[in-house]
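User: My collaborator sent over this chain with a note saying "see what the structure looks like." That's all I know about it. Can you take a look?
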Amino acid sequence: MSISVHELSRWYGTQKAVNSISFEANKGEILGFLGPNGAGKTTTMKMLTCFLPPTAGSASVCGHDIRENPMQIRKCIGYLPEHNPLYPDMYIKESLQFTAQLHQLGKNSTQRIEEMIELTGLQREQHKQIGQLSKGYRQRVGLAQAMIHNPDVLILDEPTSGLDPNQIAEIRQVIKQLGEEKTVILSTHIMQEVQALCDRVIIINKGNIVANDTTAAIQQYATEQTNIIVEFAEKVNLELLQQIPGEGIDRMEAFGSNQWHIFVSGSQDIRANIFNFAVQNNLTLLTLQQEKSNLEDVFRLLTQTEPSKS
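Assistant: Without extra context I'll predict from the sequence alone. Here is the result:
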């Protein structure tokens, strides 16, 4: 396997940024690494890329221990951080040549630069300075730099952040192509991206892994909960809404002034109860819609729940 993590931890004083997590990632797999801001995603990726030492636990990348062989790991890993570090005064080819020299590609550098320019769709912009590029093209340059030494493992932190829909589709296609022969860890907040790209998903919350399964299995879990969308003409408070009868109501969340989402576990259909509740309280129903929960709902449910203590 390309990546193996065993009880890895990182503490800042008494704060556990990453709390004894374990997982594996294999070649030919795109692993979605999800979590809210501050959950420990970036800290984990910095430890795997040897930018940050762990407090406890162990991890190996391509068979190399992150404590003992950091230089070997850097040779077999490509990393695109969330805030893409680029030299704006450099031209694209100049920047890629600089990166190729750092990786000591030697005679292969020219061919490899051309391959990366084609793969990331930089042909039209290749003679420009990086400071003249849009954010989308800067992301492509960062991706090209991460891949120029043909690493076995790619770690991508929010690779499509701030891109327009066309750019997102193009970058996703590149990542999908790379995932056929490499190990890719993809950190993102975009659930559609996870569904489109990832074979497996890890969800981390407050430093703890709260889910680790195939994308299909997590989506199957999502079918165990139903989301009822209710909108009234009048303003309704939570105290009144909690009088709706029915088993399995997990929680109620307000969206706007008069719209509510009611999350129900199990198979019970409570729409008739909601209708009767509206009639009894002289409320006007504008919307009463039932839909199965999706991956975004599962993410919110798992990351709003306090993780178990280790």
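A starting point for your reply to your collaborator: The mean pLDDT is 89.
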